[in-house]
Protein: Phosphate ABC transporter ATP-binding protein, PhoT family
Organism: Atopostipes suicloacalis DSM 15692
Amino acid sequence: MKSKMKIRDLNLWYGDFQGLKNINMDIYENQIIAFIGPSGSGKSTYIKTLNRMNDLVEDARVEGTIKLDGEDIYSSKTDVNVLRKRVGMVFQHPNPFRKSIYDNIAYGPRTHGITDKNKLDEIVENSLKSAAIWDEVKDYLNRSALSISGGQQQRICIARALAVEPEVLLMDEPTSALDPISTSKIEELVTSLKEEYTIAMVTHNMQQASRVSDRTAFFLSGELIETDDTIKIFTNPAKEDTENYISGRFG
Ligand SMILES: Nc1ncnc2c1ncn2[C@@H]1O[C@H](COP(=O)(O)OP(=O)(O)OP(=O)(O)O)[C@@H](O)[C@H]1O
């Protein structure tokens, strides 16, 4: 297995409060890794460090290294726009732009300089197909992305993330605002995407973690308690805290 990202001795502070404590992890290529843990354990904080979304949080300070294909993403030489193109993100609540479905998907490629209409059409179609929503929206590409259902909006957001050809996709509780049918569509979609992408996903739903992920990392109070194959975490975890959490004794 090839490591796509290597996280070493990562610490993060919000002012005086330490949100992440000495995290070490490898994220393997073409796998799905799930981040689980109780509310406030640092999962969202952590996933945001992986494409420097935490740069946008005033007061947040990071120490340690995160390498993407061997390059330190916190190096002063890193172009954050390029980083976020390579490491895309999908959020908890679907957040399409107040634009047409087509323009939502074309937005990223346009900002990266693609203006050719045929090329944009192709990207829009391929991205919507990859996000398993093309058939549902192909006749309505000029409709507002806000006029469709929440589950469809979330797949539009995934298509928007895919349109700039990322290598890694970060998902912060991508289904927590969705109904069960939309949730299972997104789970199927995420499973199919790992052939081409490396995926990290925060989830509160342990069944979801066990259904879709190859590896699972358990967080507690800003610490990474253990990371292992998902099957191992859910059947025979090494640490008592993990056992207590997965058996519902806290969190
Ligand atoms: N901008 C911020 N400033 C100060 N503290 C913050 C900030 N964002 C998060 N925190 C704190 O950092 C800790 C970790 O929060 P985080 O949102 O990463 O947890 P989480 O595991 O994702 O929780 P949840 O499952 O509820 O989303 C919490 O104690 C939270 O209050």
Summary: Residues 117-130 form the longest helix (14 residues). The two ends are 32 Å apart (CA to CA).
